[in-house]
Structure prediction request, 157 residues.
Amino acid sequence: MRKVLITLLAVTVFGVGAAFAQDMAAEHYWAGVSAGYPGANFHFGVSNVAPDLSVRANLGFGYFGYGFSVGVDGMYNLPVDTGDLPLSVYAGLGPTASFGYLGGMAVGVNAFGGVEYRLGQVGFEPGGVFFEAGPSVYFVPGFFAGFFGRLGFNYHF
Prediction:
């Protein structure tokens, strides 16, 4: 089990490293934390690996027997007019794997929508508060679906 987790983590890190190589001159990265259902997460992202497309790697810990999780999300910035509000509206999709899920392992896909409010108007330009939610569909160990929602903070650099 430990070897599987280390292998998936290495694939995630190398995948994000490839995204870094595409845009090293511009510093469009972020790191953040979030909490909600089914757990708490740490994530690291790279903006604009393609026009309006960002990539984010996630590490999480689920409450209530969900165990640890790892995943990668592709996030697309949606062209929503928010007026003068410093909001980013996005949709995302990506694979996820949970280890220790009820004593085993689960592999599936997360789909979500979200919004981030940048804190520049309150004097903290690199900060942002976000909310995102959506369905999770798992294929291993069997087909089942769930829902997740999280509220978090991002630091952009």
